[in-house]
Specification:
alpha+beta; five-stranded antiparallel sheet; 2 helices; 5 strands; globular; XdhC- CoxI domain-containing protein; MoCofactor_Util/Proc; XdhC_CoxI
């Protein structure tokens, strides 16, 4: 039997190394889920000011939208909470293919 699991990046370690190197960054954390959300509460995505990122908050469903918001958070220094799901106004722009909903807290790393 082969092991098909993928290594999960140490997102918090990556965030620390980026900030120690002088890169401005933000941390996105799944804070709440409903239904069949693809990532559990506590999942992380770290994003730098150039839009580079590591980790996952939705298995690829909403990472692009989170990265865009994170760049604003880095610029303004103001955290924000995002909500994604198939039943809200963003359903036609970005949604979770599995049908769940998630809330993601995005904060600047200082």
């Amino acid at each position: 039997m082969s092991d098909t699991t993928q290594a999960v990046p140490d997102v918090l370690g990556i965030a620390e190394s980026w900030t120690l190197a002088g890169r401005k960054a933000a941390l996105a954390t799944v804070i709440e889920t409903w239904g069949s959300a693809p990532r559990p509460v506590g999942s992380h995505l770290v994003i730098d000011a150039e839009g580079n990122f590591e980790g996952s908050v939705s298995g690829g469903c909403v990472e692009g939208a989170v990265v865009s918001e994170a760049i604003d958070v880095i610029t303004t220094g103001k955290p924000t909470t995002l909500e994604f799901g198939v039943a809200d106004e963003t359903a036609w722009r970005v949604g979770l293919s599995c049908g769940g909903r998630i809330r993601v807290y995005v904060e600047p790393i200082v």
